[in-house]
Please model this.
Amino acid sequence: DKDFEVAWAVRTAESAQKLGVPAIRIDAIMHGEQELSLEERQTLVATMIKRILDGSSHTGVEFGIENHGFQGNDPEFLEGLLARVGSPRLGLTLDSGNFYWRGWPLSRVYEIFEQFAPIVKHTHIKNIQYPEAIREEQREMGYEYGTYVSPIHEGDIDHTRYFQALRKAGYTRDQIGRAS
Model:
């Protein structure tokens, strides 16, 4: 129900504004996404996000698409979507573990962090520890996640590199790198 979803997102932005929350997380996951072409998916999601942004313009609240699932972890989908929407209020909720979960080689994951760091609105972290022999291989989406999910400090993703990419891009929202 597209109208319900848009109204819900607008109400969420209004609540966030009242609470002083600068950004909220949204997903680009939809039913049947793998049956549609890249262009069809980008157009459909961009249309919905534009409606949300228009309806919540009075709030100033920003939206971060979390890199979830099939299309949310596809840099080509994200780039095209962001270009179609063309709003500074739209960026990413960058989940450090999800591009790796999607099957990208570890070195590619770091490149993706740097690619999207300038438009991050919010962050989320987790980690995965794959056997060394497959860390740099393209894997199927979600490859044995339940077996290899790990505590943040034990996984393959070097979060120092994640935080450095964010810091270099000027990200300050989650107080990264600040000593108490």
User: Anything to note?
Assistant: The helical segments are 2-19, 38-55, 69-72, 75-85, 98-101, 106-116, 145-148, 159-168. Strands lie at 23-26, 62-66, 90-95, 120-124, 127-128, 149-150. The radius of gyration is 17 Å.
